[in-house]
Specification:
4-stranded antiparallel sheet; single chain; 31% strand; elongated; 28 strands; alpha+beta; 550 residues
Length: 550
């Protein structure tokens, strides 16, 4: 590499010498000849000038002598005078020739001087070019040194990279060997796992058989009780075809299992109408859809994101294809469960949205907000079609076909008739504390309300009257959005307490049926399985507990 750089510089200098020096060598030679010729002519001119002076002086002397002798020797020396005149004529002609040659020499001197000046100018220009070229050569030499240093550094870097490459190649070979060994081990473990799964499947089949036998025995007992004690079978509303038909509910009393549902506080929980899935949401801004697998664990089927603040409420549509979320970022969002895609973002509230529910046809949504309004949304047009000004922050809403019921911070439950064009509620009921939750029975005949005075009130909607008030020692409503739930048959109410307990009341008698203990923090929400088999409860410590009767 070093020899190549030097040869390149030498070739460039030779080329520059050939282009800028060789073409002017004849000019330099001509200049030298002209200078020598000029010097010779100047010397000849000086000698002619001296001879001219001598001739002039001699002429004057001769003329003086001639005039002096002209008078005395005119006759005798006439021949001599003629000779002298002839000589003087010759001298004059010679003098004229000398003057002519002097003029020619002077002109040649002028021309040679001009040519000399041009040559001097060209020489000066060439000198400047030579100096510039010398400076450029110096710069090129410095660049050459820098390039040589850079080349040396690149060679050392290249060697280092080669060494690193060899080391990485060795590491890769080792990793590939390890991967091959791990794959073989994985194949062995997969074989073992398949065998264990087969055993587990056999065991699960046995457990399912035992479970079905026990359910059959319990059903026989319930049928015997039903024969001796009449039980009301609630009507199933239109659109509830996917819900299990319930003839009686046994209160779950045991912890089936529990798990950490979210990265932060869990704010709400709700089953879908078929009882196959349930959803949780919390302060981590996520909604998770779960499925109970093998009666002893919850599998997260999907995680729905898009909210920019805590999600306070969730609701499924009747077909369990869409999920609704009410968020503290002033918006309501609708996702499709199958592909986990965010379909609608409904914005218009100026405060936190605490609750949102589908109407029966799943084309409309109602939302209640801290901004003291309720909004009816049409999902087909993605627009708000109606706004109800409640005058107080709304903590929860429930819906029927043509009505909305809302619970508020000012201790009032408001009833809104959507068939009416009035902006005022059709009825208001005042409770003893801020309303935290509403729950509608499946037959839509009863409404349960929870308030911060630690009481649960049961309304009969046909008469709009309170038929029962529930309370218990140790029961304390832990927050302004503590959610309660009816059992599927409407005979029980479940609610979470601020001390971590879960209370179950029998509606008919108002007595506490069960008090369930497992949570270590305040219980925010509960939800009863549509088939009656489970109760879900979530708390501020990120925990979700699944209560079962088995």
């Amino acid at each position: 590499m070093e020899g190549g750089w030097r040869e390149d510089i030498i070739l460039k200098l030779k080329k520059r010498h050939k282009e800028e020096v060789v073409p002017f060598e004849s000019v330099f030679q001509l200049q030298a000849k002209l200078y020598e010729r000029n010097t010779a002519l100047e010397s000849e001119n000086e000698s002619l000038s001296a001879a001219n002076q001598d001739l002039k002086r001699e002429k004057v002397e001769l003329e003086s002598a001639l005039h002096a002798r002209s008078g005395a020797m005119h006759a005798a020396d006439s021949s001599t005078i003629q000779e002298l005149q002839l000589k003087m004529f010759n001298l004059q002609e010679e003098l004229t020739e000398m003057h002519r040659r002097k003029g020619e020499n002077a002109q040649q001197v002028i021309d040679l001087t001009a040519a000399l000046r041009v040559s001097d100018e060209e020489l000066r220009e060439k000198s400047l070019k030579i100096e510039a070229l010398e400076a450029e050569i110096l710069i090129l030499k410095q660049d050459l040194k820098a390039s040589e240093a850079n080349a040396s550094e690149l060679e050392s870097t290249n060697q280092l990279l080669k060494d690193e490459y060899q080391a990485l190649q060795l590491a890769l070979n080792s990793a590939e060997n390890s991967l091959t060994a791990i794959r073989k081990e994985n194949e062995v473990m997969i074989t073992q796992l398949m065998a264990l799964k087969a055993k587990d499947a056999e065991r699960m089949n046995l457990e399912n058989d035992l479970f079905m036998m026990k359910k059959h025995q319990m059903m026989q007992i319930e049928l015997a009780e039903a024969a001796s004690d009449y039980k009301t079978i609630p009507e199933i509303r239109s659109g509830d075809s996917q819900q299990p038909v319930i003839s009686g509910v046994n209160v779950p009393t045991k912890v089936g299992f529990k798990f950490e549902a979210h990265e932060g506080e869990v704010m709400c929980v709700n089953w879908d109408f078929s009882g196959r899935y349930f959803a949780t949401a919390g302060t981590d801004r996520k909604i998770k859809v779960w499925e109970i697998a093998r009666f002893k664990q919850a599998e997260c089927k999907s995680t729905l994101s898009g909210s920019n603040a805590a999600v306070m409420g969730v609701d499924f549509d009747l077909n369990s294809t869409m999920l609704l979320g009410a968020s503290n970022d002033f918006a309501v969002r609708v996702w499709t469960i199958e592909d986990c895609r965010l379909r609608h973002t409904l914005t218009g509230h100026s405060g936190k949205v605490y609750s949102a529910k589908f109407f029966g046809d799943a084309t409309r949504v109602v939302s209640g907000s801290h901004d003291r309004t309720l909004k009816i949304w049409d999902l087909r047009s993605k627009a708000c079609v109606s706004t109800k000004f409640a005058g107080s922050s709304c903590n929860d809403v429930v819906t029927s076909e043509q009505a909305v019921i809302s619970g508020h911070f000012d201790k009032k439950v408001r009833f809104w008739d959507l068939r009416s064009s009035s902006a005022e509620p059709s009825q208001e009921v005042v409770l003893g504390g801020k309303v935290t939750s509403l729950s509608l029975s499946r037959d839509a005949n009863y409404l349960a309300t929870c308030s911060r005075d630690d009481r649960i009130s049961i309304f009969e909607l046909r008469t709009n009257s309170v038929v029962k008030e529930l309370s218990a020692d140790g029961f304390h409503v832990g927050c302004d959005w503590s959610r309660i739930s009816f059992s599927p048959d409407g005979e029980y109410i479940v609610a979470g307490s601020g001390d971590g307990s879960v209370f179950v009341w029998k509606v008919l008698t108002g007595a506490v049926q069960e008090v369930l203990h497992e949570h270590s923090g305040s219980v925010n929400a509960v939800s009863w399985h549509p088939g009656g088999a489970y109760i879900l409860s979530v708390d501020k410590q990120k925990t979700c507990v699944v209560w079962s009767e088995l």
